[in-house]
Amino acid sequence: MYEISTKLPPAAWRRIRRFTGVLTLVSVAVSVIASNIILEVFSQGINLPGLAAAVVMPALLGGPMMFYLSVRHEQLRHANRQLQVMAETDWLTACLNRGAFTRKVEADLVSPASAGGTGALLVVDADDFKRVNDRFGHQAGDEALRRIADVIRANVRKSDLVGRLGGEEFGVYLAEASHAKVDEIAERVRHAIAALVFTPSGMPCPLSVSIGGISFSKPAAYEDIYRLADERLYMAKSNGRDCIALTKAA
Q1: Which of left, alpha, beta for 140 (phi over 0: left; psi -120 to 50: alpha)?
Q2: 136-157 mean pLDDT
Q3: Distances (CA, A) of 233 to 173, 211, 249
Q4: Which of 36, 88, 124, 232 is the most buried (most CB within 10 A)?
């Protein structure tokens, strides 16, 4: 469950101080110039008390107002950013949800900046997951999914995308990864999940995943690479589960 935090990050406070300072200086400058022009017309120009008033009044009145407005602006900006993250995040595992994962992968697949590059898609599916829910309940099943998601994220690169595609199925998108690197990462994920110690209600419950994947050259269509990766997943399942089936796009 996610909650909107009202605590602003340090970067927001830096922007607030910069925004307040700049606008206060602008207000003071405008006040001094306007006062001088007015006093030039009606008297001998601005004197020292008039200059002090032209500087102090906008600083005292405008400064706090600018600070208040900039704080409110940053709070709204921070809340909107959190709402966007929440809209893209799977509530249970904190991975990208299916829609966000698909959009981000599609964007990279057709990006002109990545044209001619390579990529890979892994589909990771928990083996015999119904057994976990049937034996230990859905709460234990949810915890198992969280643990699996944590392990996947810990064993891929920071630049890789991890999404929950539905149920006990996860997707991993690896941009600019060689076929050998994809195989290395997939094996690392499989091995780390098999090594998990998961004991709901104090009873051991081994976990494992099957992984299907495809590496390819861009541009590519998401529907095509997902279909091919999913076919490889079924191959991994039919080979006894807890294994990997990878291929290269022709």
Answers
A1: alpha
A2: 96
A3: 15, 5, 15
A4: 124
Burial class (CB in 10 A: 0-12, 13-18, 19+), 101: buried
pLDDT digits (tens, 9 = 90+) for 1-33: 455 566 778 888 788 888 788 877 877 777 777
d(CA 106, CA 115): 13
pTM over 0.85: no
Residues 6+ apart with CB under 8 A from 200: 132, 136, 137, 140, 143, 144
* Count of residues making up the chain: 250
Q: Which two tokens stand for residue 144?
A: 């198992």
Single-letter amino acid code for the residue at 206: P
Catalytic choice (88, 168, 176, 184)? 168
Query: 143 catalytic, yes or no?
Result: no
The DSSP line for the chain is ------PPPHHHHHHHHHHHHHHHHHHHHHHHHHHHHHHHHHSS---HHHHHHHHHHHHHHHHHHHHHHHHHHHHHHHHHHHHHHHHHB-TTT-SBPHHHHHHHHHHHHT-GGGTT-EEEEEEEEETTHHHHHHHH-HHHHHHHHHHHHHHHHHTS-TTSEEEEEETTEEEEEEET--HHHHHHHHHHHHHHHHT----GGG------EEEEEEEEESS--HHHHHHHHHHHHHHHHHTTSS-EEEEE--
For residue 7, report the phi and psi dihedrals to the nearest 5 degrees: -80, 120
Q: What percent of the chain has pLDDT over 90?
A: 57
Residue 211: φ, ψ to 5°: -130, 125
Q: Which amino acid is at 191?
A: H
